[in-house]
Amino acid sequence: MNPRWLGILAGVLIAAVDSPADEWKLPPETIALKPGKGREVVLGQCAMCHSLDYITTQPPLPRGGWVASIEKMRSKYGAPVPTNAVALLADYLTEQYGKPAAKP
Amino acid sequence: MRERDLNRRRFIRVAAGVAGGMAAVPGLIANETYEMPFENGSRELVRYPEKRPLIRLTSRPPQLETPMAAFNEGILTPNDAFFVRYHLAGSPPSRDVLTPDVFRLNVAGAVRKPIEISIADLLRRFEVTEVVAVNQCSGNGRGLFTPRVGGGQMGNGAMGCARWKGVRLVDVLKAAELEPAAKQVLFDGLDKPVTATIPDFVKSIELDQALDPDLLLATEMNGQPLPWLNGFPLRLVVPGHYGTYWIKHLHQITVVDSSYKGYWMDPAYRIPDDPCAHVEPGSKPRRTVPISRFNVRSFITSLAEGVQVRSGEKQRVRGIAFDGGSGIREVTFSDDGGKTWHGAELGRSEGRFGFREWTVDWKPVGPGERTLWAKATNRLGESQPLEALWNPAGYMRNVVEPVKVRIV
């Protein structure tokens, strides 16, 4: 067979084999976190177990709400977040996705 | 921002930001967005396997919500529009472990004759039956809570109604021959946590409820095998009860002689121990119980928030109503914010667990903005509150949902 035809045939076969696998592929995660101090720590600690839209779709929680959420991840789901990282995580989340404390 | 302004902003548009960020990546198509009527409610519309573009709340694990317009297509929610909710990031399970050659349902624990059975044998050995039933997420409408609560921020699209086909759970349990000490039945699916410290998603049901012939082990919805993301090849169907019990990719049924204390039964998925499952906004319940049956809900589906209608032109307003299984007795409609109510006509019943269609003639008189309300009452006389009830987990929303339209 003409090598050109062989190439086209191979292409068709690859496409045919490819499509069933593609059919069961999940679309990619598209959420990026806002820049800010602590962002890298949040990425490292949170994205291991869930996509970042778990953070970005929350209502603007006060700092206490974010702390409660981090503590739930630690105590209920065993997230290996070191104690000394909690404040940094909570600061970033409150600053970028939360409700800053009301001014006195 | 005021809710009224947010409501006006509820429309679908191309997300310029997302499109801009992704245009350079070959093979990625920019997703459209869907605006929820609450703060921080902008969502991508994303196409998943076997699904039309749905409102994506989260991607790992996937949580997808049905756009409200789909509920106007009929009382059965199309499979490709049906909502998706997972808890564990190891979800959905790979297709490899779900294929007929590999997949087995196991029934074990306090039984004399444990069962290990393929889907084909399950359908051969036990009588196959059907039920039309609503599945609804416990937190459906959580994003609409005021004050806002943490958790999955959904609008009202985490619900759907399908014709489920399968075998009765009671028949399978009887074939396994329960031991006298049997007290509860546990259900586990093949979706798994990503670390050993995260509790596996296991739910328990009291034995007397598990023996109710309404409960099915379903292999099909709406005449098709279950979609991958809705539990293929087998899921538990608990008509009238919240989706948390409808275990997907169900592979393990364990009969136990004690009360299960797993995380997903306690402290998760608990409601205040009060007839209306509510507490004073901002406060904590003194005592909680596991969430169970749906309360009464109804929705206007033929008119979306913010649409324009012509003054003086009569139209048929359509919607759906459902409850936890007593059946819908009455739906009333108001175009003046609840001052006067008009009886709607109920459509054909597909059984007491399904969506019930209702329609009512309405002649808009304008111009101006009007708030439309629909309110359902079930056969027990239970109805919907005009003021939203609140609980800290954001469960069981069933307030009368207003739809504001503009008469021109």
Written description of the protein model:
The complex is a heterodimer of chains A (104) and B (408). By secondary structure, chain A is mostly helical. Chain A has a domain at 39-99: Orthogonal Bundle (Cytochrome Bc1 Complex, Chain D, domain 2). Helix content of chain A is 56%, strand content 4%. Chain A has five helices and two strands, in the order αααβααβ. A two-stranded parallel ribbon of chain A has the order 1-2. In chain A, helix 4 (63-75) crosses helix 5 (86-97). The longest helix of chain A is centred in the first third of the chain and has 21 residues, at 3-23. With 408 residues, chain B is mainly beta. Among the domains of chain B are: 95-268, Sulfite Oxidase, Chain A, domain 2; 297-407, Immunoglobulin-like. Chain B has five helices and 27 strands. In chain B, the strands form six sheets. A six-stranded antiparallel sheet of chain B has the order 1-2-3-4-5-6. Chain B has a five-stranded mixed sheet with strand order 8-7-16-11-12. In chain B, strands 9, 10, 13, 14 and 15 form a five-stranded antiparallel sheet that branches. In chain B, a hairpin with a 7-residue loop joins strand 22 and strand 23. The longest helix of chain B is centred in the N-terminal third of the chain and has 7 residues, at 16-22. The interface between A and B is medium-sized, with 29 and 38 residues.
